[in-house]
Known about the structure:
single chain; mainly alpha; Tetracycline Repressor, domain 2; 9 helices; 0% strand; Homeodomain-like_sf; transcription; transcription regulation; HTH_TetR
Amino acid sequence: MIVATRAKLIAAGRRAFASKGYADTAMEDLTADAELTRGALYHHFGGKKGLLAAVIAQIDAETSQRLKDILEQAPTLWEGFVEENVAWVKLALEAEVRRIVLLDGPAVLGDQARWANQSTCLADTQHTIERLVEQAIVKPIDPEAAAYLVNGAALNASLWIATSNDPDAASVKAIAGLRALLTGLRLDA
């Protein structure tokens, strides 16, 4: 029952936040769509802000799996690393990610660099860079520093795309810049 109630509220939140945005979503919209009471929303999430955090966590889990699949299915670790980062930037073009994660999330929950999921993302990036250094594919750079720089570049590129008047044009520029930046890490560059 608890899992089902949480799932209904998250699904209702995801639909409402994606279509109306956080600010224009009333608590009554969320509870009516989920056929639950305000009390259920407060009990499970502490309110609308907690529900937004849960929706973002769900979207993040889904996108993280998509990105891991790109890394694992690539012909080489280097290609996987590059394409995983490019795919992360391209997520800014997806309406749901753009509105909920990149626009409303930081406005309501604060700086994305401080979100819990960022530490996992940083750790994954650092691990990949460690492997690339060990395989002599990238320059002998500090993997922790490189992970912060790569993730910061990708995050800021995504925020630029999300807030751009022309997200498609910004995406093309951001991806070209990111590819150049990553190529600069290569030992043979």
